[in-house]
Amino acid sequence: MNAPEDWPEPIIRVQALSESGIPAIPNRYIKRESDRPISDDVADDVNIPLIDFSGLIDNGKDNQDLVSETMNKISEACREWGFFQIVNHGVKPELMDRAREVWREFFHLPTEVKQSYANSPKTYEGYGSRLGVEKGAVLDWSDYYFLHYLPPHLKDHNKWPAQPHSSREVNEEYLGEVVKLGGRLMKIFSINLGLEEDQLQDAFGGNGEDIGVCLRVNFYPKCPQPDLTLGLSSHSDPGGMTLLLPDPHVAGLQVRRDGKWVTVKPAPHAFIVNIGDQIQVLSNAIYKSVEHRVIVNPNAERVSLACFYNPRGDQLIGPVKDLIGEEACPLYQPMTFDEYRLFIRLRGPSGKSQVESLKSPR
Ligand code: OGA
Ligand code: NI
Fold first, then answer.
1. How far apart (Å, rounded) are the C-alpha atoms in residues 277 and 358?
2. Which reactions does this protein catalyse (predicted)?
3. Domain count across the chain
4. Where does residue 140 rank: exposed (0-12), middle (13-18), buried (19+ CB within 10 A)?
5. Strands of 143-150's sheet, edge to edge?
6. Cα separation, 218 vs 107, whole angstroms
7. pLDDT value at 15 more than 70
8. Does residue 210 belong to any structural domain of this protein?
9. pLDDT value, residue 361
10. Which ligand has its closest atom nearest to the C-alpha of 245?
């Protein structure tokens, strides 16, 4: 199985459609009735857990109580929600704002400039407007930009936007910081799961730069009929964990919980962290990757930066032996992340069907 060289149909930029001022969205963005965002299904009085990370940042003070309290909160959020937001995480607020705003500027550059980075389903790197290659598929109301940061041999600055002029530099600095934070979270997850500090990272294929890190910047243009479509269809993230920088002005991310959709209300300068399919598999489903989706808005565009912290592509990922337990059995069959991701790249977002398909026969 291979990804095709090109898209099955001509690509239409959602932003261009939106800016053309059409009063109704084309049919190919209209979701089945059961997939449309209905307010009855939304739980608006709850939010995902908010965790203050300051106790875990080395500030020279020894405060073991605060450390264990914070670790426990993270443990509970991973088990109960698969999603949480963190504040006081050590990444500078100004850097977060700069990163988001260079991307907003990118999406407002002239079409010809953006087109020079147009992507293909082969690697997905560059400027794109669809996930999946099924002909005639119903599409999401968003454009995006996808790039690799790690491992070093996949990073190619020529595939990163050169404009705005500070963009590459800002992205380097931003991703460097987010990767450090991701590494810290990996240690926390590992300890919380009862493993050695580095065991989870080792299961990802090694320390340092031997993992996969990529950035997908999502751009959700204004939508004249937000009730009929989605900015991003329901999915769980295929990788290890995701660190998302949301738009501070416009909500849109919804997380599935007890049959309802919880709209995330981001705290100022928070990162939204969620467990991906690979950590669900490694933890033998002690931690679960949770379905989420994005709704769109008639009056406001939305920009978000999703940094995917993934295993090495060629690493076989199956349940960690220490987590299978004596009576329990491994729930999943091992697969490399490269192989796993190929399914997603061909089929596009499809709830949790992918990770479910790894279930061991019994
Ligand atoms: C994603 C994602 C959410 C958002 O990129 O996988 O879920 O708020 N993004 O854009
Ligand atoms: Ni996602």
1. 10
2. jasmonate + 2-oxoglutarate + O2 = (1R,2R)-12-hydroxyjasmonate + succinate + CO2
3. 1
4. buried
5. 50-52, 83-87, 271-275, 241-245, 302-310, 212-220, 143-150, 126-128
6. 10
7. yes
8. yes
9. 61
10. 1
Q: How far does the centroid of ligand 1 lie from the alpha carbon of residue 218, in Å?
A: 7
| Cα 145-148-150 angle, rounded to 5 deg | 155
Asked if 215 contacts 306 with a C-beta cutoff of 8 angstroms, the reply is yes
Q: State the DSSP code for 32.
A: P
Distance 235 CA to ligand 2 centre (A): 6
Residue 338: C-alpha distances to residues 152, 295, 341, 351 (Å) = 16, 29, 5, 19
CA separation for the pair 32, 210 (Å, rounded):
41
Enclosing domain of residue 45: 14-357
pLDDT tens-digit readout, 78-127: 999 999 999 999 999 999 999 999 999 999 999 999 999 999 999 999 99
How far is ligand 1, taken at its centre, from the CA of residue 87, in Å? 19
CATH number at residue 199: 2.60.120.330
Q: Is the pLDDT of residue 274 over 80?
A: yes
**Tens-place pLDDT, residues 36-70:** 998 778 888 899 999 999 988 766 667 888 999 99
Both structure tokens of 157:
């600055």
233 sits in which H/E element:
strand 232-235
Mean pLDDT confidence for 236-242: 97
Q: Give yes or no for a contact between 102 and 166, defined as CB atoms under 8 angstroms apart.
A: yes
Give the pLDDT confidence score for residue 142 in this predicted structure.
98
- Per the CB < 8 A criterion, the answer to whether 332 and 255 are in contact is no
Q: Is residue 146 in some structural domain?
A: yes
pTM value is 0.96
Q: What is the pLDDT of residue 362?
A: 52
**Helix (H), strand (E) at residue 149:** strand 143-150
The response to whether residue 294 sits with its C-beta less than 6 Å from ligand 1 reads yes
Find out whether the beta carbon of 232 lies less than 6 Å from any atom of ligand 1. yes
Evaluate whether residue 7 is within a structural domain: no
